[in-house]
Design a protein that fits this description.
single chain; about 850 residues; alpha/beta; 8-stranded antiparallel sheet; 22 helices
Length: about 850
Amino acid sequence: MIGIWNSTSQLQSSKWKFLFEVQQESPKPTPQDYSLTVQMEPLPLALDIKHIHVEGNTLKATGSVVVLPHGEGEATIEMVFEEDCFTGFISLPFTGVMKLDGTRGRGQSLSEELINVVAPYHKNNVIERTPENIQAQVEQLLGEMTIAEKIGQMSQCMASDFAFGGDIEAESADVLVEQGRTGSILGAFNSSRVFELQKTAVEKSRLGIPLMFNADVIHGFQTIFPVPLAWSCSWDIEAIRDACAIAAKEATATGITYNHAPMVDIARDARWGRVVEGSGEDPYLGSLIARAQVEGFQGASLFDKETLIACLKHFIAYGASESGRDYNTVDISEWMLRNLYLPPFQAGLQAGAASVMNAFNFYQGIPIAASEVILKDLLRDELGFDGILISDYGAVEEIYTHGVAKDRSEAARLSLNATMDIEMVSQTYEQFLPQLVADGKIQEQQLDDAVRRILTYKYQIGIMDDPFRYVRPDKEVEYHFNESHLQASRELAQKSIVLLKNEAQTLPLHVAESSARIAVIGPFGDSKDLLGPWQFSKYGADTVTLLEGLQAKGIQEDRLLYSEGSKVNESIVGGIERALEVASHADVILLALGENSEMSGEAASRMDITIPEPQQQLAEAIVELAKQSGKAVVLVLTNGRPLVLDWYEQHMDSIVETWFLGSQAGHAIADVLVGDYNPSAKLTMSFPKQVGQVPIYYNHFNTGRPVTAENEHEKYISKYLDGPNDPLYPFGYGLSYSQFEYSAIELSRSTMQRSESIIATVQVTNTSAVAGQEIVQLYIQDLYGSTVRPVKELKGFEKVTLAPGVTAQVQFEITEELLKYCNARLQWVAEAGEFKVYIGSNVKHVQVAGFELIEA
């Protein structure tokens, strides 16, 4: 039974494929020495096997699988093996019992089986239509549509009964598509389902209008890249753009045409689970990354079969949810909205984002899904957005739940008046818009406006002329999880790892020239849960673990020791004792701790953002052992948010923040640990010293009683009684195996008129014996204005690579544009006055100079 086995099963209209890998850990195994991993298509859910029993040629296993919105459900597997085949069953909470009848090996993928089926449906020599031609075709088609068919284009349904949000009552996708009652599909995870539904739309619905297929491709499709919070720490805009382009290439091969990404919310509260999906707390860096993601997903032309419609979410201020709790209240001023939360959306729109999704929160008392002020006046009229506005999951219905509509009919009316084009999954549009038109409470022209935008993009992406152009199973085989994509994932993962502490240069581990023994201790030492939330890769079982990454470095087996010690959220009986025994034989201990994927992402807010107690107990025991024996301890973190690490800062020799790094995580972490890659990443969210500090962020305001080094012992100032205001690790912070020194700043002039600019110059020297890369950061402070101004604002950065002993000159140009902000009258202005310039390795460690902006 040892090896890889495959089986396919039929479930209603869909074919499922299962891949089982059975391994054993010793030559004479007991039942406890067997392990089983499971991959499944078309729904690539992670199945966590908890118990295995082997007797003769029969394997029985139980485990769990996360099925949204209901949480974990139980999974049961039984397999009876012959020499080259097996029989049995698998029971999953959302499918029931499915019969297994399989063979040895990986077998043929569902994609390979589809290649010859789809080929006759592809068209050749389809050319891109001109905007004028598209406009004419859209108007002609609009004239042929009934009100019901128009509303159908404005309604989205799930590809199956699998749900991402609350329970939604709906008819099957097949029925809705055939009757022309839906225009887009969410969650068709494989090309065969895309093909089936598209075929139904084209051949059976009255007008034959093709479907768009939507998915949340957040940080990779099959090849998984670091989560967005991680890749933002690379400050590598080009690499992020490339990652999104690869994700688009893989997703479109499966038929996905419309992406529910990027998330460009600015977030300051680490308790909010969705910080993992964004680029951190800074609007300047967040804007650059928003633009890069749109450019990566959409490419040069949406007519290109390897590009995706990008959707900016969540418009707007969702990252300001009170208490860091998902779906919660947001109450901020318009001044704050425009200065902090709007810039990344503006950048994404300027990059040509074709779609925008509303935020779940309300603004000025109105749920944004119903807000004409936000969606019509600001987004459409002021910012000039004429693309597709799509609701978040169930957000139209939730207008009623918020208490702003007396019923669901009123919710539908309010949302349409706010220019919402597509309702995601819930069916208030279909159920209530026809009667609202008949009663004169809305106008058919409003439907036309929405459908016009939807059809325009259906023409732009080419599906109106070639409906099956994105269903390319041959390209799935070629693109998914291929070597070049995996290499790109590994390289971005390397760039995303932040070295937070490195006492006495504990790292890198010089494994090639040392006989030192390394103990890997903790639940993430040999875990494949390194992909993070919001990914649906069928290759999850191929994720490279930390232990596998170290083994690939050629460390001899007797020098690489391992013990789990504890689970993520629960203790293991005798686990700490076994971990101590293993650690006692090592010279260096790698403590692999953190959060699992379910602890970050949507609906994963945490009150207590510390490492869970069972892991804390393990860490304390290991530290006590290390203290007595003089061993070095390195904390290797896996997580999706800033954590409270004050105890670890005091007790670890080194701390390595690896986040969720994706498919090649173990290789990238090992690259950094052994010095094959010199870390250069910098934090894009502040790490609090204590949870009571959150939300915490660098670009705060002075207040009337700011704390300073001189007055910090006084009482009546803006401070805590029981701790500092400052974070444990500030924005922009990150160490290297190199050391860098900064010269004083030289300014090309001390005063500047609006038509002029100032060149700020600094010399950066690598004072170490190790070549390295430094992210040099520029901050500016407006010392006084017509409104309060932040103590610092990021306004530029530059990466420099320096050999040992080499000095580089780094220059930044300061223009009037960099000095602008939104004033109390909501005007973007640069006001005359004094400014400070800060340049350094992070927001706290900087050189400083000053200049004045004067009127001519």
